[in-house]
Each structure stands twice: as structure tokens, then as C-alpha cells.
Amino acid sequence: MESGLQELKFSRYNQKVELSGKLFLYNALTGGYASVDEEYRDNFDKCDFKKLDSMKELAELPNAIINQLMEGGFIIPKNFDEFNVIKSMHYRGRFGANKALTMTLIPTMNCNFRCPYCYEKDKKYPVKKMTTEVMDAIIKYVESRIDSVDHIFVTWYGGEPLLGLHEIRIMQNKLIELASQKDVQVSGMIITNGYGLTKEISDELVQMQIKTAQVTIDGPEEIHNRTRFLKNGEGTYRRIINNLLQANENLEVVIRVNIQKENIKYVPEFVDSLKQVGIDKRNNIKPYFSLVRDYEIDKGYIYSSCFSVPEFSEEESKLRQILLKKGFQPANSNIQPKLYGYFIEKQYVFIVPYICFKFFSCNNSVV
Ligand code: SF4
């Protein structure tokens, strides 16, 4: 073995992935990604990444390759403790110098859609809106924190938040006014089904500093309309696509495509249909693929149609290739999964539901 390798070991976050007969390496801690040349394939096939000190298969590799493996974090100095890196990411995330006040606000849990996989489907979509008392309490809370922050970021969530547009207007304008007195920035995003996202409303959102919208489309028209339909059963695909094409160009639109075993085969057709209407030419609209999860404690009725996380990770890279080949820029540039280090609630992150002023650390706790 080359003498230098004796001082090195494998990262414990290495993965080998075989795609279309080619071998790729991926490091989940650094996000490092490498494609293995055929002439070195045998060396890497024989490597056992679980035996961290077993580097003998790399002994014959040129120094340039060893350097690249170090650069990607695939091999690291023997005395390097990766767990300490994760701990430090975690503490930086929780207690670091980030001075943003991040809020998720729910103006209503009502929705005009009836998606079968909705986490709200048993809650009967209450029509109530965020009350004046709740809005006042949020503003009071922001006033109490504003001297210690430099940025307020709001995610508008629901239900369908655009059914509470009046409440969004009141809150967003109050926050902007409050922040302007203190040299604090305000920005936001909205997670909407896209049905009510008309040109006029997209203009208004941008003007209220809500400059990102996440809109879910589940596949080509027929497939999308099977899972994302109105209360009366009518399809929603055409109206959403028309809305996106006319949306304000300063609104970043992220198209989320929920992937299940039933709809994955329609992705190429869906990407073609987006291209046909010119979505690929719109720099402000970017699609990405998301895993549908069954959050029920006992396996729910969608369990059998959900991919597991490892299965989805493999599928996701193929789906991204489809987007890239057709000239789309995927919305999430990181290859998943990647360790981020801070898995529990961050300072200042909370969610305010519409009828009471209460902090939650996770969207799933609200309903
Ligand atoms: S659009 Fe969202 S909130 Fe409305 S039914 Fe579908 S999943 Fe539920």
C-alpha cells in the first residue's frame, strides 16, 4: 500500500450507486458525487466502504484520483471525526448567528381541492379564517423580537392559503410596515395548489414580498386530475398550467411533483407536456420531484403505493436526468439524501395556526 494511504480511511457516509451499468460514488455528508471510470471500476467494486480502514483496493490508483476522492470527502484523514462535524452543523443551525425570524402561518385550513392523500382529509376542511386576535398576537410577538432579528421570513401554508388572501394581505402589510421602521427585511413564500394563483394575485404576492410559490402538479393532465381535483370532482390541471404561464416573472414558481408508484411512469409524458406549453422557457418556473410519505402510525391506505426513501433516492436521480435532458433546470440542485446536521427545531421557527396563537416545531403537528 502507498505510504500516504496508511494515514487515511473511508468516510462512513460513502455510497456506491449503479445506474445504467455505470458506477457512481456519493458522499452524504459533503454531497460529493463521482462517476467511476471503467479502468478503475474493478478497484471500486472490490472496496468495502463499511470497513473504514480497508484501503488496499485503492493502493494502485494514481495520486490524482486519490486527491479527487479526498476533495469529495470519500476518503479522510484517520484522525478526522465526522460525527463532530455533524454535531457542529447541528449547533450552528440551532444557536448560530442566523438572525432570521422564520414563521409558518396558516390563514385557513379550508381547501377547494379534495386530494385523496391529503393529511387534512379527516378534518373536514374547516372554513374558519385566521382571527383578528391571532393576527394581533403574532404582530405583538414580532414586535417583541424585532430588535434581535435582521430578517422576517413567512411561509404561508394551509389548507389552501389563497382562500385566506384577505388575512395574508393584512398580515404581510403589517409586517412590512413594522420591519421598515427597524431596517429589517421581509420575505416569504406560499405553498398553494395554484388554482387561485391568477396573474393579478401573483402580481400582488410579489408586491407583498412573497416571491416564491410552491405549486403541486402530480403528472400529465389525466393523471393529475385523478388525485388533485376540486370539491365537485372537476379537474384542475389546465387552470393551474394557465396560471403558471401568466404568473408574474418575479415570482419563483417551484412545481412539486408528488411521486408514487402509480404516477412515476408518467413523468416523461408530463415533462413533455410542460415543454409543449413552454414552461421550459420560463426561467422563474422549476420542477422537482417529491416523495409521498404515509404519515399514519398504522400503515395507511396509501402505504402500498409509496416508495421507501432508498427506493426514491434511486428513482429521483433518473427523474432529474429526464428534466435535464429536456432542458429544464430542476428546483432542488442538491442530490438527496444529504445530512444537514440540525434535525430538531431551529431557534425562532414556529407555526401559528389560524384559530389560536401557539408554537409548533413541525408542520405535521398542526392538524
Ligand atoms: S390542495 Fe393540499 S390542502 Fe388541499 S386537499 Fe390537496 S393536499 Fe389537501
Automatic annotation (TrEMBL):
Cited SUPFAM superfamilies: Radical SAM enzymes
CDD domains given in the database record: Radical_SAM
Record key words, sorted: 4Fe-4S, Iron, Iron-sulfur, Metal-binding, S-adenosyl-L-methionine
Pfam family, one: Radical_SAM
Top-rank taxon: Bacteria
Domain Radical SAM core stretches: 95-331
Obligatory cofactor(s): [4Fe-4S] cluster
InterPro entries: Aldolase_TIM, rSAM, rSAM_sf
MF GO annotations: 4 iron, 4 sulfur cluster binding; catalytic activity; metal ion binding
Protein name: Anaerobic sulfatase-maturating enzyme homolog YdeM
Organism for this UniProt entry: Dorea longicatena
Gene it is expressed from: ydeM_5
